[in-house]
């Protein structure tokens, strides 16, 4: 990785091209799957969250292809709304080239694509959180509020994984902790977790 890595530079250039972005991608997710669907995906997670700077709600940023032919530009239902910050491209050879936008909305293959993509993105985020927790904390600071929307938007489907990715401020230290970390250090006899909600840590402290 790094600016001197030619492959990473290609990724960054492509990210800026498809996203009209000026930052560098925080994370790059590049994979191919052949079961149950043949998928080729290149996803990027930005460094900056433009919604935090008052630049309006992020629109879907992933284009859908079939055998390198564009099927739909940034479809609304390819990823859930709580992953709207993800940018990139998906190529699925299991979609017919002549599928219309109306047919696509009711196509069972699209539901399978969506499920597979969400699981893969969350899996990659879990790996990042485990291997580089400080770097992941920067991601969480930017996109945690959006990711948490999935806890109530999608019911139980991804709740366990999303909970494992969620980070919290704690009275025990200045950093972020996961729910599992907090539970592991609970004192003997503690059978409840007490919390305060607020717009930010400073508001709660006040």
- Spans of 5+ residues with little confidence (pLDDT < 50)? none
Task: Output the radius of gyration.
Answer: 19 Å
How is the biggest beta sheet arranged?
5 strands, mixed
The fraction of residues in strands falls at 15-25%
Quick one: how many beta strands?
Answer: 7
Describe this structure in words.
By secondary structure, the chain is an alpha+beta fold. The strands form 2 sheets. Strands 1-2-5-3-4 form a 5-stranded mixed β-sheet, sandwiched between helices. A two-stranded antiparallel sheet has the order 6-7. Helix 3 packs antiparallel against helix 4 and helix 3 (108-131) runs parallel beside helix 6 (159-165). It has helices at residues 6-19, 101-105, 108-131, 133-147, 149-153, 159-165, 179-184, 201-205; strands at 25-33, 39-46, 61-66, 69-72, 87-92, 167-169, 176-178. The model has no long low-confidence stretch (mean pLDDT 87). Helix content is 39%, strand content 19%. It starts with 5 loop residues before the first helix and ends with a helix. The chain is built from 8 helices and 7 strands, in the order H-E-E-E-E-E-H-H-H-H-H-E-E-H-H.
